[in-house]
Amino acid sequence: MTEPPCTFNEVRLMERYESLGLVGEGSYGTVLKCRHRDSGRLVAIKKFMDSDDDATVKKIALREIKLLRQLRHDNLVNLLEVWKRRRRWYLVFEFVERTLLDDLEQNQGGLDLNTGRRYLYQILRAVAFCHQQNIIHRDIKPENILISQRGVVKMCDFGFARTVAASSDGGVYTDYVATRWYRAPELLVGDSKYGKPVDVWAVGCLLLEMLTGQPLFPGDSDLDQIYHIVRCFGNLTAHHQELFHRNPVFSGVRLPEHSARVRLEQRFPSIAPAALDLAQSCLQMDPERRAQCSELQEHPLFTQDSFHIRYLDELNAKIQKDH
Ligand SMILES: Oc1ccc(-c2ccc(-c3cc(Nc4ccc(CNC5CC5)cc4)n[nH]3)cc2)c(O)c1
């Protein structure tokens, strides 16, 4: 169905802003980069498409807005305004200059250790905050890590985020998650009872990608993704092997043998040992054994030279200037 012409309200609403095109070529859904005509301020406006089944769009929009309103933190992209005009929802966010993907494309060999530490420290602050709010992002990847001109990191795109069920048995999630390369083993084998550790796995993948310039596990299918992981870390856990064999998606498929294992330390001999250790704490096959983002901020990668003490003052000054 072709888009109906803008309504008056939408025209009036968008009269306040000049559209500068899609943000990130649509990788966030329909998110427009806009300039506020009066102030010149750049914003990112997410427009929810109205659909025949309006109730579903409304439910999704309200869930996302409720979740975003809980997430106020210096290292999360800020929701500025929410509009509802006729049957359409608009979320207005701050616009941040570039993404980690942009930085990695500019630095094909990877970022230097200090830049990587500065970004990682802020990513850990962002994810730790979300997890303290019992929210899992579920799609942490370089495109969703925004970086301001002064180097302040702001995580974005909570379109797939979910609140972890309060119940002790954890939630049961069956809808779409995570871009494949950053997907934890439990997601790949189809475990519906996953939680915060899926974000920790993605952070481990991000750290090594920042320091090498290359994606850690660039699988070209879910099975290939499992192959990449098993070749590095050995067999899946017994529970994940059972889920794999019970998953109809993989019926008749043999689990990859971890015959020719290439461990992280063999693959990345020149990575700082502290960085490799932190990555390994995130990349545990058993989600229960993975580190928590709150504790990783005290990892020797940050404390061995008091980086975490020196950097906090510098970061807070940058955050103030960015406001
Ligand atoms: O539920 C949601 C939905 C959408 C968002 C969201 C909010 C804000 C943004 C955003 C993006 C952005 N800046 C940006 C800057 C550069 C690029 C891409 N660089 C191009 C390739 C050279 C992409 C994005 N600033 N703000 C993106 C997504 C969100 O944070 C939550």
Describe the structure.
- By secondary structure, this protein is α+β, with helices and mostly antiparallel strands.
- Helices cover 41% and strands 14% of the residues.
- It is built from 13 helices and ten strands.
- A hairpin with an 8-residue loop joins strand 1 and strand 2.
- Helix 4 packs antiparallel against helix 6 and helix 6 packs antiparallel against helix 10.
- The longest helix is centred in the middle third of the chain and has 20 residues.
- The radius of gyration is 21 Å and the shape is globular.
- The structure holds the ligand Oc1ccc(-c2ccc(-c3cc(Nc4ccc(CNC5CC5)cc4)n[nH]3)cc2)c(O)c1.
- The site of ligand TC0 has 19 residues, from strand 3 and strand 6.
- The site of the ligand Oc1ccc(-c2ccc(-c3cc(Nc4ccc(CNC5CC5)cc4)n[nH]3)cc2)c(O)c1 has 19 residues, from strand 3 and strand 6.
Low-confidence stretches: 1-9
Which kinds of small molecule does this entry bind, naming each only once?
A: the ligand Oc1ccc(-c2ccc(-c3cc(Nc4ccc(CNC5CC5)cc4)n[nH]3)cc2)c(O)c1
Number of strands: 10
Helix percentage range = 40-55%
> Sheet bearing the most strands, described?
5 strands, antiparallel
Arithmetic mean pLDDT:
89
Structural class estimated from helices and strands: alpha+beta
Q: What is the N-to-C order of secondary-structure elements (H for helix, E for strand)? A: HEEEHEEEHHEEEEHHHHHHHHH
So what's the overall shape?
A: globular
The spatial strand order of the largest sheet comes to 1-2-3-5-4
Helical element count?
13
